[in-house]
Amino acid sequence: MEIIKFNRNFIKIKDLNLILKIVLILFLSAWFSIFILQKIDLTTSDLGRHIKNGEMVLKGNFGVLKTNFYSYTEPQYFFLNHHWLSGVIFYLIFKIINFKGLHLLYLIFYILTFLMFFILAYKISGFKNAFLFSLFLIPLVTYRKEIRPEIFSYLFSGLFFYVLWLYQKELISKKYLFVLPAVVIFWVNLHIYFILGFALIGIFLFENLLLKNKEKIKTLILVLVLSVVGALITPFGVRGLIYPFRIFQNYGYKLVENQSVLFLENLNFYRPEFLIFKIVLILTLLSFILVLIKSKKSFVISNFILICFLGIWTFFAIRNITLFGFFALPVLSYNFKIFEDNLREKFKFVFKFLFLILIFVLIIFSYFKYFSFYKNSFNFGLGILDGNNLGGLFLKANKILGPIFNNYDIGSYLIYYLYPKEKVFVDNRPEAYSESFFKDIYILMQENEEIWQFYDKKHDFNAIVFGYHDLTPWAQNFLAKRINDLKWAPVFVDNYIIIFLKRNEINKDIILKYELPKEIFNVKSK
To answer: Which of 36, 48, 39 is nearest to 145 (CA)?
Structure first.
């Protein structure tokens, strides 16, 4: 009877542990959601264009796949739409459940990705490490919270790493590896980071070459070859396969997301995630040293190569911060677990105590930095920002005609609201326009009044639509000049955009009804 009683108590303890873990995982998911659920600003995001891409593809307008489809300035310029399938998915979801539903499903994809990395960390290091490092890394892995095609790259890269790791540790059979080439067929049409799948296979292949594991070498070579073949199944064939290596050959416009951490910090463009990234990178590299000290045989070469690769990639392009954070989770969890397991028993308590102090200090520090910076710009909720659609509705309601001159940031917004009735001057796809277009036309038009007048005469602009949070020096100078330009009347302004109409017969009635007094702007041109 005593044995039975003991077993029942044991079962109850196990049940309580399971319940506690489930509660903590639910807490992590809810806490994670708070960081992701920030309302969408259509005036600066790419989402409007992605939705329109999906609509065009489903209507059979396949020019959207290979040409600068939405522009009247360089309409025949070749553009490889490497994320076209993401647009189809976004459009279909949007049509069924609108922006809020799309946002909610995006959150679900993000949580699934997070949980995949968390479960891997849990499998290889235990619940404690996985939970604490997850809590610490949430501000990092939620850096790219805008609805973008790259969510599929986060999800699929996590799947690749999960399968490859388990195979390497002989926890699954090789048959599961052959799911990966099938995934590549979708990945290559969803986002340009499909090459990360090749890199992950290559890293594990390199590790097995060093270990001289012939069977795994043959299997991974076959999986890699099949994955490359799968990547050819796109509307672009070989051109699509090599496009990731050529996309920056024609980038005439510098994007913040493609700049290095140091470059941006030198420009006083600060984000708390930059500091958190540097802390995590240093901590991760130190964790490898700890493993080498205590157990060289447990040092995972593929993990080290991966973290070095992603660390360098992230350091030189901040758009990869989220990706780095995801992979740091299982790697950090594993390394600290190995170090702890190889300590002498009498030192384990001290290490656990010091580890808890360290991780709690890091968590408090990172959250303090995060919320101190974003406290005035935290727009929690689903869907688009309040009033974010008013400018687009104003343009449609008043049937404002083109040609429209617009700035880079607002391009996708205009595509969403006005295409096919009106095309844009430019939009936020540097690869879709020639380098000379940005350097010799777009920027100079805003810097030099003579060049502006030349192109105004050439295109006969009827309206100017500008996202005035564009902080480039040429944009601010241009806006100030237009406000003081008697040829142009400001007729709409909100928290996001400003609209000018040329004083002509076409716009006469709209200007009479909506013209704004110049005094409200309080600007001076240089």
So the answer is: 36
